[in-house]
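Exercise: predict the fold of this chain.
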Amino acid sequence: MVTIKDDRSIIVEERNTSIAQFERLFVDVSGASDWKELVSQVSTGLERLRSTVTADHLVTRIQLHGSNPLAWRIRRDLDLVRTEMETRGSIIGNVWIDKVQTSWAEPGDDGPSAGALGELSSIIAGDVLSSTAYQQELVSIAEELRGQLPAELRDIFGTDEASFQNIIGEYAHDGSAEVLARLRGGQEE
């Protein structure tokens, strides 16, 4: 708030008017060796972010990234990660989780990614995702979906041809990673 006095002096006071502040939290959990450590690292990130926010409520979208053998499990159990973070948020106080997203890379071809699933992953990455027929089918599906969306939502597929291609490429990559994570999860149980 700015106050101008009769003597022309100016007083500036900061007044918070927002009840909630929306923030993104990027957490590199490459170093997490198990589920407990992963949850701890994300929780620490939430606590740090909360300490910087002056609004009464923090609404955050968490983006987990890195290279970690837990990548398949995190993709498979993303709902559990969100539930855990919602619990941590209530403990921290007035922290609300909008969404938890991932962008993972699995290290090497050893461990759970070896064998038939590793081979399937290589085929998908090397042959399927880059094939012309697959790309044409992907564009066809995306254009059909975009045509059925209300006009104000059509930009989720990009605002020009280059962004359209990038976004559907990301969707294809994320979708194949999701399927492989679920297959890998079924193999582990």
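Check your answer against the key: The helical segments are 35-52, 71-76, 78-92, 116-128, 132-148, 161-188.
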